[in-house]
Amino acid sequence: MKSYFAPASTGNFSVGFDLLGAAFAPKNGELLGDELVIEGEAAELSLRLSGRYVHQLPGDVTDNLVIKCFYAFEQKVGKTLPRLKLHLKKHLPVGSGLGSSACSIVVACYAFNDYFGKPLSDFELLQLTAVCEGGVSGAVHYDNVAPSLYGGLLLMLPESPLLCRPLPWFPHWQVVLCYPGTVLSTKAAREVMPKELSLKHSIRFANMLSRFVSALYCQDETEAFAALQDLVAEPARLPLIPELTAIRAALTAEGIGHVGISGAGPTLFAVCQNDQQAEFAAAYFRQHYEKNQDAMTHICTLATVGARVLLE
Ligand code: HSE
């Protein structure tokens, strides 16, 4: 038996639509991400499901991403592979903005590659996860799969053979992630996006992203917070998450530097500079969404390690 884990991720990080992504881990040591156990080989491929959010998964196991990833992995490797007895522990909510589908895809592809003796290079593995994720969200984008696979805050480079590169971070930053408990599919949240941006808008977007990246390299926190603006997705998605405006006002009034939409939402994230801000944001989020049983809030730090073996 061998068990694998991949962390949750925040696509876009507000300022980099489809181009920035970060993996996060709760400060209290809990695992926020999906776990896949390879229980052994068997005559037929099988998948058992458990975990807090198992009720949000399709009833028919053959529709599960882990099974789809097995066949996609087999096709990419180009030979028939032994069938496996699998167990997915679904700890991330589906359609949450926490990179839930990417997380299942990454943990599955990483696990298969490790189990079968690494037939795919890191590059091929990342490509495979992005193609599988594209099948779910309707477009190939790396900003969830890459951080879930590698950890850290990453800049996507889809037109470079590198595909992505790690960025610096502010080591004292804490990110409070709050999933409100409602489902919003990435596909639906992409459908509301504008099909084109004006020249003026494109230049502002490029400027904010480059301003943020430059602030990270210079470790200029004031500039980083000033640049954390979502000029592309948020204007289109705000009607899907209207409470963001009031929550942002309440948290920024406490000195919290940024509140944004994690990935395609509805999860929100608050970037905090100390324990006091993080505790305040977490308490505020919990109180706001306490009525929803599926809601969850975590105070996180950057997960510097991505997909990995949990148990040999
Ligand atoms: N960049 C993607 C989007 C992330 O915002 O649609 C999806 O989690």
UniProtKB/TrEMBL annotation:
<feature type="domain" description="GHMP kinase C-terminal">
    <location>
        <begin position="233"/>
        <end position="290"/>
    </location>
</feature>
<dbReference type="InterPro" id="IPR000870">
    <property type="entry name" value="Homoserine_kinase"/>
</dbReference>
<protein>
    <recommendedName>
        <fullName>Homoserine kinase</fullName>
        <ecNumber>2.7.1.39</ecNumber>
    </recommendedName>
</protein>
<comment type="pathway">
    <text>Amino-acid biosynthesis; L-threonine biosynthesis; L-threonine from L-aspartate: step 4/5.</text>
</comment>
<dbReference type="InterPro" id="IPR020568">
    <property type="entry name" value="Ribosomal_Su5_D2-typ_SF"/>
</dbReference>
<keyword id="KW-0808">Transferase</keyword>
<keyword id="KW-0418">Kinase</keyword>
<dbReference type="InterPro" id="IPR006204">
    <property type="entry name" value="GHMP_kinase_N_dom"/>
</dbReference>
<dbReference type="Pfam" id="PF08544">
    <property type="entry name" value="GHMP_kinases_C"/>
</dbReference>
<dbReference type="InterPro" id="IPR006203">
    <property type="entry name" value="GHMP_knse_ATP-bd_CS"/>
</dbReference>
<dbReference type="Pfam" id="PF00288">
    <property type="entry name" value="GHMP_kinases_N"/>
</dbReference>
<feature type="binding site">
    <location>
        <begin position="93"/>
        <end position="103"/>
    </location>
    <ligand>
        <name>ATP</name>
    </ligand>
</feature>
<dbReference type="InterPro" id="IPR013750">
    <property type="entry name" value="GHMP_kinase_C_dom"/>
</dbReference>
<keyword id="KW-0963">Cytoplasm</keyword>
<keyword id="KW-0547">Nucleotide-binding</keyword>
<dbReference type="GO" id="GO:0009088">
    <property type="term" value="P:threonine biosynthetic process"/>
</dbReference>
<dbReference type="InterPro" id="IPR036554">
    <property type="entry name" value="GHMP_kinase_C_sf"/>
</dbReference>
<dbReference type="GO" id="GO:0004413">
    <property type="term" value="F:homoserine kinase activity"/>
</dbReference>
<comment type="function">
    <text>Catalyzes the ATP-dependent phosphorylation of L-homoserine to L-homoserine phosphate.</text>
</comment>
<keyword id="KW-0791">Threonine biosynthesis</keyword>
<dbReference type="InterPro" id="IPR014721">
    <property type="entry name" value="Ribsml_uS5_D2-typ_fold_subgr"/>
</dbReference>
<keyword id="KW-0067">ATP-binding</keyword>
<dbReference type="GO" id="GO:0005737">
    <property type="term" value="C:cytoplasm"/>
</dbReference>
<comment type="similarity">
    <text>Belongs to the GHMP kinase family. Homoserine kinase subfamily.</text>
</comment>
<dbReference type="GO" id="GO:0005524">
    <property type="term" value="F:ATP binding"/>
</dbReference>
<keyword id="KW-0028">Amino-acid biosynthesis</keyword>
<feature type="domain" description="GHMP kinase N-terminal">
    <location>
        <begin position="64"/>
        <end position="152"/>
    </location>
</feature>
